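2.7 Reproducibility. Because tokenized structures are sensitive to small changes in the input, we list the exact sequence used for DHB7 reductase, including any N-terminal residues retained from the expression construct. No trimming or masking was applied before prediction.
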Amino acid sequence: QGLYSSVVCPGLVMSNMTYGILPVFMWKLLMPIMWLVSGCPGCVCWACTSLCCSSQVWLFKQKPEYLDSLVKYHSCTSGLGRCYVEPRKMDVDEDTAEKFYQKLLELEEQ
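Resulting structure tokens (single pass, no recycling of outputs):
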């Protein structure tokens, strides 16, 4: 039917929703550490909402038939704040994915 599904990870987006997870003083302690860690390649994006969620925007711009259904697309950022998308293979074998898809089709028919 022309429907496609992909898995994305927006990273840790610092928003008013995120701040409710921990007390404010914990975020003040964690932010310098997160900034240092973000400099390593492949770390998740932790910055503000305008920099993160790049995987969702990138995915929206792709032709779905060219995407790998067994890959999770992660929003990442470099230490200098450059955002990029990194595909990472999910730990799912194709047989399990096919069985899951067939079960979804059965449920749809019901």
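Residues 46-50 have pLDDT under 50 and may be disordered.
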